[in-house]
Amino acid sequence: MASQAVNRDTAAMNEDRQLDSSEAIGLRIVQLRKALGFERANSFARFLGIETNTLGNYEVGLRRPSLEFAAKICGRTGITLDWLYWGSVVGLPVNLLQLLQSVDEADQGESKAG
């Protein structure tokens, strides 16, 4: 019984690590950029007030965004830290959630077509 609980806890921790991995956060930043209508990273970086290469490093998961950047992107776009770091949609404005979902659906459609 105890080993089953440990296995469940380990599986939950592994899932949590995947949700907050640099790569997962980067994918959410790309999703946000597209949802807000920024097709190119350089215009989104300018909007956020950061260097394009810094944004690129976040988007591909080479660097994990600092709390300072996370607060900046939340303030500029309306997302929550919970969404950025964990993918939780609780507390997101409805219109932003709809935009994010439409990008996610479009990306899934592209991957099925390809």
Radius of gyration of CA atoms, rounded to a whole number: 16 Å
- The coarse silhouette is globular
Please provide the ordered H/E string of secondary-structure elements. Answer: HHHHHHH
Indicate the percent of residues in helices. over 70%
Mean pLDDT reading: 86
Please report the total strand number as a whole number.
0
Main β-sheet: number of strands, strand sense, barrel status? none
The percentage of residues in β strands lies in under 5%
Residue runs with pLDDT of under 50 for 5 or more positions: 1-14
Corresponding CATH architecture: Orthogonal Bundle
CATH superfamily: lambda repressor-like DNA-binding domains
| Total separate domains | 1
CATH class: Mainly Alpha
The N- and C-terminal alpha carbons lie at a distance of: 45 Å
In short:
By secondary structure, this protein is an all-alpha fold.
Please name the defining characteristics of this protein.
single chain; about 110 residues; mainly alpha; 434 Repressor (Amino-terminal Domain); about 75% helix; globular; disordered N terminus
Describe the structure.
With 114 residues, the protein is an all-alpha fold. It has a single domain, classed as lambda repressor-like DNA-binding domains (434 Repressor (Amino-terminal Domain), Orthogonal Bundle), CATH 1.10.260.40. 75% of the residues lie in helices and 0% in strands. It is built from seven helices and no strands. It has helices at residues 2-19, 22-35, 41-48, 52-59, 67-77, 81-86, 94-113. It is globular, with a radius of gyration of 16 Å.
